[in-house]
């Protein structure tokens, strides 16, 4: 392994596991710092990060690093990071981590290139013992590499379903594209991407969206098609949320927790250039990114952004035809994309999220017209953040003069895309 790649892998693990930085950010920054790396090195590095974080607990146990939800991370040092690296190399080299065929062809022998360096790197390590320890994993927590805390909470809420969900959450996330049909048809985009050496295929979605998936993982952000705003990178089930709204041209729609605006952009496309999307968030930086994306996609006239302050919601009372509340949540439905969330989950944060979710529901619901619809959504799989949160809201609100009813509910398990929950509410009087 050339030294810069090894140092980067070592540094990335330290930043993610010890400094608690997000893997996506670390990968992006380190790749930017190493522009001379070849495509195989860049591909291998990114895959390594997600794979090692996803299998962290089992890798640690394979080199006899004792597991404890808290002490494991506080006791990490350079030597243990090296041990985790060796463990991963051994396991991936033996094909014991299920990755795609292209990646399985890249053993550590190939990537290291320098045979002498390869020999020195692991001369004290017994690969046979590492692989034997890996195969000995028997508990759900060890096999799927999840924290004790997460396992206890999820099993308490989901029961036996937690086992089946883990099978899917343990896999690598696919890359999906949402076609901007205001600029190009699905078939024409497929052909244009083919000319740009990007192969995609049509996907059948639960709620009829224009979705494509990459046949081979590639950097689509550098393509002319992306720069022209012909598509957005968006999970297949995330695309379903906007479709669930039942948007009609001419409506005024509030996206109450917009973030960088993937759903706001989709909603704008569904308005057919008639109506308005008000995208709200507490972070100006995210809204700035949304404004940039809106210009590229051709929806800057349809989307207004506003930072949430104490008076923002009050000034919007009774304005919206539809309010989308894709609220902050534990994100357990997107573990395939953010595997480090498995290690940062704790009961205190979940309790605080519950309080934030009910606060947003109670306050932001007031921005709805009397005849409007409220859509509550999360990328969580926990009933306490989903069905039970909606039931809690209805129980509290229906003690007042205004009565709400649940009109429809949709659960998307993370079998193909991310895990999502969606529920539509309307006022009875």
Characterize the structure shown.
This protein is α/β, with parallel strands linked by helices and 429 residues long. The protein folds into three domains: 3-139; 176-233, Alpha-Beta Plaits; 242-427, Vaccinia Virus protein VP39 (Rossmann fold), CATH 3.40.50.150. Helix content is 47%, strand content 15%. The chain is built from 22 helices and eleven strands. It has helices spanning 3-17, 23-33, 39-54, 56-62, 71-74, 78-93, 101-104, 108-112, 115-121, 127-135, 140-143, 148-158, 161-169, 186-195, 224-227, 236-244, 262-270, 284-297, 312-315, 341-344, 347-364, 387-397, and strands spanning 176-179, 200-203, 211-214, 231-233, 252-255, 276-281, 303-307, 320-326, 368-378, 404-412, 420-427. The chain has a seven-stranded mixed beta sheet, sandwiched between helices. It has a four-stranded antiparallel beta sheet with strand order 2-3-1-4, with helices on one face. Helix 18 links the parallel strand 6 (276-281) and strand 7. Helix 1 crosses helix 6 and helix 4 crosses helix 10 (127-135). The longest helix is centred in the C-terminal third of the chain and has 18 residues, at 347-364. The radius of gyration is 23 Å and the shape is globular.
